[in-house]
Amino acid sequence: MKWILFALAILVIIFIIILISKLKVYFHYDHHNDDDHLKIEIRAWFGLIKYKIELPLIKIDDNSPTIVVKQKKGTKDQSIKKDTKQFDANDLLNSFYDMKEVLRKVVSLNKIIKKFLRKVTIQKMEWHTVIGIGDAAYTGMLTGAFWGIKGGIIGIISHFMKLKAMPNLSITPQFQFALSKTSISCIIYFRIGHAMLAGIKLLKYWKGGRPNFRSKPLSALSNNKIKSI
User: Fold this and answer.
1) What is the pLDDT of residues 140-152, one digit of tens each?
2) Which pTM does this prediction carry?
C-alpha cells in the first residue's frame, strides 16, 4: 500500500512540474526582396526538449499561380523531415473557411483566446526593416507609414500580451534604389498548464458535431469522432 501511495505521489509531483513548466517559442522571420525564411523553435525544460520547424524557401511558382513552400521539421534526436508543398488560392480560401468554422463551433472562443494571451509573455522582440522604392520623396512617405503600422501592431500586442522588455524597432530608408528587407525575431513563453487549460475550455465549449473542414490536414482530423459537450 505504501508503494502505491508513493508512486501516486511521484506521479502527482511530475504532473505539477509539467503544469508549471514554461514553454519557450523562438520565432525568426527574414524577408529580402523575393526570398523569405521562417524558423520556429519550441523549447521546454531548459532546452532538454526541442522541436524545430523551418521554412527555408517561400516563393511564387513561375509556372503556376501557387506558392511553393519547402519545410523542415523535427527534434534534435529525430532525423529532420523535409517536405515541399504548393498552395494556391483555393487552399487560402479553404483556410479562411476553416477559421470561420472553428469560430462557429466554439462558444466564447474570443474570451478563451484573450484569457490565454494574458498569460503569454514576450521576453524579447526585434523588428528591423530596410525599405526603398528608388524615389526619395515617396520613400520618406513610405517610411512614415511603416512606422505607423509598426506602432499599431506593437500596441495591439501589448494590449493582449505581456511585454517584458520594450521592442527594438528600426526602419532604415534606402533612397538610392528599390529594396525590401525585414527581419523579425521574437521570444515568447507561457506555462504548459495555461495552454492545457485553454485546450480543455475549447473542448468544453465546443458545440455541435463534427466540423466541416475543407483543408486536407484538418479534414483528416474532422473524420475522427468529436462528441459535442
Assistant:
1) 899 999 999 999 9
2) 0.70
